[in-house]
Amino acid sequence: MKLNIYLFRHGEIAARKNILCGWVNLPLSKKGLNDSKKLSEKLRVEQIDVAFCSDLLRSQQNLVEVLKYHPDAKVIIDPRLRERHFGSLSGELKSIFADTSAIQTIDGKQVGLVPGLESMETIQKRVFPFMSDVLRLMQEEKVNVAISAHTESSRFIQEYLEGLTPDMSGLLEKKPTEYKKYVLDFD
Prior knowledge:
The mean pLDDT is 89. 33% of the residues are buried. It is built from 6 helices and 7 strands; from the N terminus they run E-H-E-H-E-H-E-E-H-E-H-H-E. With 187 residues, it is α/β, with parallel strands linked by helices. The strands form 2 sheets. Strands 3-2-6-1-7 form a 5-stranded mixed beta sheet. The protein has one domain (2-185): Phosphoglycerate mutase-like (Rossmann fold, 3-Layer(aba) Sandwich), CATH 3.40.50.1240. The longest helix is centred in the last third of the chain and has 22 residues, at 120-141. Helix 4 (120-141) packs across helix 5 (151-162).
């Protein structure tokens, strides 16, 4: 049996430009909401039975708009889909984070020198089990799934589904008006 995953991310947030939003719980901007409406139109013809989003407002707002044409879809809020936590840099300008002294690599692992900074390995350790749970749900319940993700969680979902290396997935970026469709065969 072939089932689908529709992966997309939210758009612009209502905050000053170029900040490290991370776990700061901000809503979508007017542009972000308009992007969600455009995405909704594109997904209108697809079958969505179950939809996931993080517990952050912008992901939920994005999903609400997308599901406008899928009123019977079951919604599951899962914090494992959250964006990267930027610790004490949350809400600060991205240019601060561009300073590579904020991250150090020791024995091939990223170590944050910023209090509370979440490593890429930590994100992977929450997103990969989430995806295992999604695939199990799809197989057991025979459902198509939509996932409203954030930039980093979206990259790790793509890494998981496409067998990408971390270096390859780090280059991925989707526009908020686009989605990626994965067709999975559960025979």
